[in-house]
Amino acid sequence: MCQDPALRPPAGLLRLCSGTDGCGHRGPFVIFLSLIVLVEVATAIAGYVLRDKVRSEFNKDFRQQMKNYPKQNQTDLFLDEMQKKFKCCGAANYTDWETVPLEPKDRVPDSCCINVTAGCGVNFKVKDIHTEGCVEKIGAWLRSNVLVVAAAALGIAFVEVLGIVFACCLVKSIQSGYEVM
Predict the structure, then answer these.
(1) Which InterPro entries match (predicted)?
(2) Least packed by Cβ within 10 Å: which of 25, 43, 134, 142?
């Protein structure tokens, strides 16, 4: 039995799961898996609590990438792909492109066009382009798919909890002298 009075409550908790007295080194796998589950839960809670900050940071980063668009440094390909996939234009709407120095002036990237063709973003008509912003469209897509992400996370957590339970059973059977055939 562990003699340190400060370790008695944690030792009881450890003994319950791993069969150790809290001062030994048996059952580290159980403890390690438990810590991983706790970190995952803390990450999920932080993601939920900070969701508005994540959205504002995404908006800021998207606008920064728009400023890098004319530099032809792969940013243009990334933004074009996002605008095509989500049928959107700019961060908040298509007018965001007015602040980006594109040549010729007063144009949007061709990826904003409903029917994407070379040069369709030059001298565009509003009815021929996507007017909604990408930040809101991507946010809506994430919100609609959050159930799939949550289900996958719960499935992974279930497997991890099973690992903890089986590790506890294994430690208990080893300590009780059970022989495996």
Answers:
(1) CD63_LEL (IPR042028), Tetraspanin/Peripherin (IPR018499), Tetraspanin_animals (IPR000301), Tetraspanin_EC2_sf (IPR008952)
(2) 25
What residue has token string 């039995």?
1
Q: Give, in order, the Cα–Cα distances in Å from 163 to each of 15, 40, 122.
A: 17, 15, 59
Please state, in angstroms and rounded to a whole number, the distance separating the CA atoms of residues 150 and 157.
Answer: 10
Q: Which fold has domain 51-132?
A: Cd81 Antigen, Extracellular Domain; Chain: A (1.10.1450)
DSSP for 152-177, please give it: HHHHHHHHHHHHHHHHHHHHHHHHTT
Compute the distance between CA of residue 12 and CA of residue 10 in angstroms, rounded to an integer: 5
Q: What is the pTM of this model?
A: 0.61
Where do the domains of the chain lie? 5-49+137-173, 51-132
Mean pLDDT by 10 residues, the chain (181 residues): 49 50 56 84 80 86 92 87 96 94 89 94 94 93 80 85 83 71 53
CB 153 within 8 A of CB 106: no
83-103 per-position pLDDT tens digit: 999 999 999 999 999 999 888
Residue partners of 168: CB distance under 8 A and separation at least 6: 17, 18, 19, 27, 30
